Amino acid sequence: TIEEVDDGGSVANALFRLRYGSDAPDFPFHVIAFWNDDGSRVPLCYIHFTAQGDALLGGGACVDNRMLRRLPKDLRDRIRAAGGLYRYSLAWSVRHFAPRFSAIFGYCGDALAERTDLAVGFKKTEYPRLLVYFTRELDAPERRALIEQANAVGPF
Questions:
Q1: Is residue 26 left, alpha or beta, with left meaning phi > 0 and alpha meaning psi from -120 to 50?
Q2: pLDDT for position 58
């Protein structure tokens, strides 16, 4: 299952530490893909988003590949057929947050993650590593203002 979780930072700390060496952010928004096994909910994928006005900044994504290898083969095959757990979770996140934000941004320094972001529908901007997914039609000045606002943040 994939869901937005209020206490996602604490739920995903172990997973986040594996990838980034520090605790997950303790402020909204947290999206987690769980494997529901024998009544326990094991976090498999975590994505953090930060609201910035009418934009949402996505970063800090990570997947627990060790746990993925423990899943039943048929489930791993279904995840692979869906494009992978990060892609599936990111696409879910875009649908989930689209009604609340005009644009969702990603700051991507990883080539595989960038390919996944682009496959979900994100577009490159003129700024290296800054990707955008506009959730609705905006005129050029509005798009430009949101891109500049996200770029001003720096890595997120």
A1: alpha
A2: 96
Strand order in the sheet with 55-63: 2-4, 30-37, 40-52, 55-63, 103-107, 130-134, 123-124
Question: Given this model, what pLDDT does residue 9 score?
Answer: 84
Amino acid at 143: R
The C-alpha atoms of residue 77 and residue 65 are separated, in whole angstroms, by: 14
In angstroms, rounded to a whole number, what is the distance separating the alpha carbons of residues 31 and 94? 11
Beta strand extents in 74-129 (DSSP E only): 103-107, 123-124
Judged against a pLDDT cut of 90, whether residue 37 lies above it is answered with: no
47 vs 123: CA distance, rounded Å? 18
On the question of a cis peptide bond just before residue 29, with omega within 30 degrees of 0, the verdict is yes
